[in-house]
Write a structure and sequence with these properties.
The radius of gyration is 18 Å and the shape is globular. It is about 40% helix and about 15% strand. The strands form two sheets. An eight-stranded parallel β-barrel has the order 1-2-3-4-5-6-7-10, surrounded by four helices. It has a two-stranded antiparallel sheet with strand order 8-9. The protein has one domain: Divalent-metal-dependent TIM barrel enzymes (TIM Barrel), CATH 3.20.20.150. It is α/β, with parallel strands linked by helices and about 325 residues long. The protein binds zinc ion (2 copies). One zinc ion binds next to loops.
Length: about 325
Amino acid sequence: MVTRKKVMARGSRGRQGRRGDPGKNVDNLDDLDDLGHLLLGAHVSTAGGTPNAPGRAKAIGATAMQMFSKQASRWAERECEEEECRAFVTALSDTSVRATAAHDSYLINLASPDPVLRARSLASFEAELRRCEALGIGYLVSHPGNFMDDRASGLARNAEAIGMALERVPGRVVVLMEMTAGSGTALGATFEEMASLIGAVPMPHRERVAVCVDTAHIFAAGYDLVDDYEGVWARFSDTLGMDRLGFLHLNDSKAPRGSHRDRHELIGEGAIGERPFRSIMTDERLVAIPKVIETPKLDDAETTDRRMLERLRSYAV
Ligand SMILES: [Zn+2]
Ligand SMILES: [Zn+2]
């Protein structure tokens, strides 16, 4: 089993390791009041290149960030050249960001029964892992795929592919399988299914796999964060174990509970509402878990994201 310590150690390495001096950025925790321990941020744009992302995270007062390392809706692959990696690490070192994640391409379906699509997905997923390693990004967030034919076969194909990719791209990036809303044949909408998926990833690669809980997705999948907050986490804990929780996506939901529709809303302004986010921000079990928002950016990403992070920080006190 992966342990919290292991997952967090990876996060710490991503936050500090390659820059060498763990204490270096502690004085830079501006804008964070006494909540500097929180790992809180947003999915930020890489428009103009990955080295531009850290500055955008800094502008919203983030201590965690998520980004794409390529155009997420295209198959075209790329590798990160040394100059890009250097510029990214330098830009990141000028921020208070201590946890970094990349979200993989939406086209990847490691569960596909179509051998051509699955091979293409596997190659693309491996390239995602290589870019994370090159940039020093701690986590790669990936959606379990769509099974298309039958669920058990889809899970087996997905788990096997994750194992193959981690075999071919050794390193320390933690793969975070994201909980989904479960529309159509999408896998990963229940804790039980996520436990089966991760349990089927061969050792030792299973140690590098954890879960990303997206609040909007699990709510749309049916989990009642509003009226049974404790019950939801009790089920997570019983089924997967809290040590397996690596990351949180904090999003409110435009879609009602159980709708299986993935529609993100501003924090506290959707069907989930303010209260569960207050619970999350004060939950001792979740303090050390990096949290990023993927909420609508409205007219101005910087202004909106900054406002959402301020709102979440206000819930934490
Ligand atoms: Zn996602
Ligand atoms: Zn998400």
